[in-house]
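Reviewer 2 asked us to include a model.

Predict the structure of this chain.
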Amino acid sequence: MRLPLSKILAIPGLIGFAAFLYITWYKNEDYALYMVPFVIYLIGIYFLQPAIDWWWYQKYPPDVEAPLRKIFEQRLPYYQRLSDKNKQKFRTRVALYIEANDFRAQVIEEIPEDVKGVVAANIVQLTFGQKDYLLNMFERIVIYPGTFPTIQYPKSFHASEIFAEDGVLLFAMDHLMPGTLHADQYFNIGLYEYAKVFQLSRPEVAYPELSEDLWADFEKISRFPRKKVEGFVGLENLDIWAVSVVFFFSFPERFKTQLPDLYQTHSNLFNQHPAKGEEPVIVSLEETRA
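Predicted model (structure tokens):
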């Protein structure tokens, strides 16, 4: 990604401060006063940094790095179906989501960039037909290397969770990656948690009330027994609506055949038709002014 505007703007302030610091230290202490405007300038840049950089990225959209782009091109069927223009839009949204949110590592020292990209790809896919795609209620993403217990589930080592009070999402890296890149073999915990975030962020929407009886249909659609899904997530009593969203995107053709009414409901809500041969988005992004 290009150097953020805030860092570019900070350069003259740093140079001016360093110059007068040098003069003050080696030449004349009377010049110390001239450092003050540069200090004030740098403090202003520091506090305005998020707004400055967000404006800059909106005006000059960023792109993801080549390794992440290669993952999208080779491993994400959804991305592969997009036009060149919408592929660029997808990558830009991924880059902006990474920039706009706070990623924190737990147990590991640093989060690999491809993991950040895969996290972002899930929400971007979910909201790609929407103008508002960031879902700003949740801005902190915590990544563990493997399953973990939490305050909400102290006795259960699990792979994903949301903590609504603090706007936090938690993911186990070793479950997130295969679930996203091999969605036909593993349950996608990324889409699952972001579906719950979507619902919390859009409370005005009339969501369908789904019965636990739908698990029989889900097993036919995904070939995943319910126990397999619960075992992969590490929790029982999963959110049935969020599960349906995962299978809507992961197995769209079979979902449409097995549950045509629910498929249409999801299609209308997300402005997408993943079961069709053409691009998934129904209304163009230009029409939604995204």
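Strands lie at 102-105, 140-144, 160-163, 168-172. Residues 285-290 have pLDDT under 50 and may be disordered. We have added this to the supplementary material.
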